Amino acid sequence: MQGGDLSAEVMPTVLVVFETVIATPPAAPPKRLFRKSAPPAAADCAFDSTAEAALWRLTLNADINVEIVTFRGEEFAASIRELLNEHNYPARTAWAAPSPDALARQLAHMPHVLAVYDGDSTRQFTYGGRTRVVTSHNKQHLGAF
Asked: E-strand spans in the chain?
């Protein structure tokens, strides 16, 4: 809002891949022959406090939105959104992309996205110039690179 007028400007956004940066998903349970097991939820994952602290720093010190992306489907993204609301996590929303390649194709239509933080080094060139590979050594510097 500038001078009392609403602005149509879109805030810059960074995308953070849930499975490789934010949390460690649980190992897949063994397949049961007769009983259908429930799909894993985000609450079953081990969250990384270093990444959370870095995202808090990023959202408080810069005017940047944080969105979480998962490749595990829309049900999993819905459970992430519930956790975001319950624990006041420093991210605006969570959504599902079908695959890293599909996300890379979507980025062409998302000029407001500054960077994609992914912890999988095999996807180093997937998102083009927006790729930021996160390791355990640089996780506390999210947003600075």
From this structure: 13-17, 23-24, 46-47, 65-70, 93-96, 113-118, 131-133
Q: Give Cβ neighbours of residue 67 (< 8 Å, ≥ 6 apart).
A: 13, 14, 15, 16, 91, 92, 93, 94, 95
Rounded to whole angstroms, the Cα distance separating 116 from 66 reads 10
Distance CA 134, CA 118 (A): 6
pLDDT in tens, 77-122: 999 999 999 989 999 999 999 999 999 999 999 999 999 999 999 9
How many residues comprise the chain?
Answer: 145
